[in-house]
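Sanity check

After download, print the first record. It should look like this:
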Amino acid sequence: MSTEQNKAIVRQLIEEVINQNNMSLGEEIMAADIIEHEEMPPGIPAGIEGTKILFTMLHNAFPDFKATINDLIAEDDKVVVYMTWNGTQHGEWMGMAPSGKSMSIGVIDIFRVADGKLVEHWGLSDMMAMMQQLGAMPE
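Expected structure tokens:
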């Protein structure tokens, strides 16, 4: 597949799976045995099931949750996306009662694509900034 096709798959993941919480599409574009290199929150498994749980939790806690792509770069079989996650906490998040506060954090993800599917993922997100913005820890 071309780098443009690989970028289109990652864009679809963000715009349709993550932003619209369309997990059935996620199952179509993520390999069943996707290798997850990002540490998931406690109690959340790696792979497609963990992705479903994590984004369901995010959408429940932040009903207006949105990931905005700031940059999307591809080379060979890898796609790197730098995005901003925004939302207002109206539900429980990681044991925190709803705060009504907004958060905006930077997230960097790297995906490896093979045969039209996401087969490997690395990610970094500024969870400390999120917790500070929500009032769970001092700035």
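If your output differs, re-run the checksum step. Summary of this record's structure: Residues 3-18 form the longest helix (16 residues).
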